[in-house]
Amino acid sequence: MESHLWTSIGEQTKSIDLPQNDAVLPDPILFPTSPARPSSAPVPTPWAMSSPPRTNQQPFVYHCIASLHRPDGNILSIAMTKEFIYVGSESGRIQSWKLQECPGVGFIKASSGQVGAMFACGRMLFSSHGDYRVRIWEVKMGNKRLKPKKISTLPPKRSLFVGRNGRRQLQQHSDHISCLAYNDADKLLYTGSWDSTVKAWNISENRCVDSFVAHEGHVNAIVINQEDGCVFTCSSDTSVKIWRRVYGESSHILTMILKFQLSPVNALALSLLSSSSKPCNFLYSGYSDGHINFWEKESSSSRYNHGGLLQGHHFAVLCLVTVKDLILSGSEDTAIRIWRREERGNGYLHWCLSVIEGHHGPVRCLAAGMEMDNMGNMLVCSASLDQSFKVWRVKLFPPPLMNRSEMNVEQLKKEIGGCEMNNPVLSPSWVEKRKLQFDDYYVSNNNNNHF
Predict the structure, then answer these.
(1) For residue 218, what are the contacts with CB-CB under 8 A and spacing of at least 6?
(2) What CA–CA distance (Å, rounded) separates 402 from 395?
(3) Closest CA to 153 of 194, 208, 77
(4) What residue stretch is flagged as signal peptide (predicted)?
(5) 281 closest CA partner among 341, 344, 191, 370
(6) Which residues share a beta bridge with 189?
(7) Which candidate, 389, 367, 362, places its Cα nearest to that of 380?
């Protein structure tokens, strides 16, 4: 019944693409070729399912297994669990598919505007909408179809609460809710907004328990360290901030400001791992100038120290996600880059393993997780402003051909000297839209300069 909403996009299978002249050197190892899987039986779905990987001996890292095009609006948010993929769009509808073969299992419709942000935790799904409010859904399966149940709306009405200054203020945000994060231990939902504030919600009581001005510009992303409850926020004001909840209270205090360069910060991701030698805690931040900064937590002082830059994207980094020791970044240059962090002596190095190409517009949001088949594969979901949504299967094989610890930087450069990076191909509609935005920006600045 809903096939008219989607148009298919052809198969895309890519060989590994190694970047040239990146400040963080890419891994020169090509992963070994895995045998092609037998073709699966067709499933009832509006997806354009791709065929199995080619059986030639050319090594490859990723394969597009399904692709969708949404002609009636952009996809604005993605949430992913072990079972489902949720996709929110400008239409206000949340589509859902089951992982692995991606059969459609239904949708959630809320008549409250676009779905700007989502977060999934177990059977709970949080979604922000165009009315500056959040819906909480309980998601179950029944008869192979999704059976969503709306638990609550935050705030339930234009209610008031007593703020930090003792005055009564509105619980509701006054502008677009751009990001969501959930503290599972304390059952607190955090919302970040273009009104520069962050709000904490007690979901069991359906009320706002804290609201604070977090930045001077739009709040673009929020992540939470589930181990200690620290809240990380980033903004167009070029800063990343770390907040800690006051013990025994609902209020939050600012503990640290991370500011390395004068460029808007669009995305955040945390990577928490315990290696054989020591635990590691990294924070990654994506900037409008195309850089990714990473910060390492000091175990003795719990401070975050700047560790370096990951360079490779041509334009703004719009989204970040981590899976184990991998970092995935989506950019305005239409590419998705996969980076690997490796321990080296007393420190860590990052390598660009692959560049996933297939979108024709900026990659706005990402989600990723390991497949459940125990074959070491990762599923990556990506949505672009070209109105497409794709699911990629990424092959994760250990590189057995060379011991990089015995090579210096010059040797690595020699190994990858012949590699080239394709120029990004942007859709004509996006280029025209971007040109108009720049024209408006310069006209506005020129007019302001006359005063």
Answers:
(1) 178, 193, 194, 196, 235, 236
(2) 19
(3) 208
(4) none
(5) 341
(6) 182, 201
(7) 367
Distance between CA 309 and CA 408 in Å, rounded?
Answer: 19
Rounded distance between C-alpha atoms, residue 2 and residue 168, angstroms = 46
The residue whose two tokens read 């092959």 is: 395
Is the confidence at residue 8, as pLDDT, over 50? no
How far apart are the C-alpha atoms of 231 and 137, rounded to whole Å? 23
CB contact at 8 A, 377 and 368 = no
Count how many residues are written for the chain: 451
Task: Provide the CA 232 distance to its chain's centre, in angstroms.
Answer: 15
Phi-psi region of 58 (alpha: psi -120 to 50; beta: other; left: phi over 0): beta
In CATH terms, the fold of domain 61-399 is Methylamine Dehydrogenase; Chain H (2.130.10)
Domain boundaries, the chain: 61-399
pLDDT in tens, 284-341: 999 999 999 999 998 778 889 998 999 999 999 999 999 988 999 999 999 999 999 9
Here the tokens at position 175 are: 């502008």
For 47-60, give one letter per residue: b (16+ CB within 10 A) or e.
Answer: bbbbeebeeeeeeb
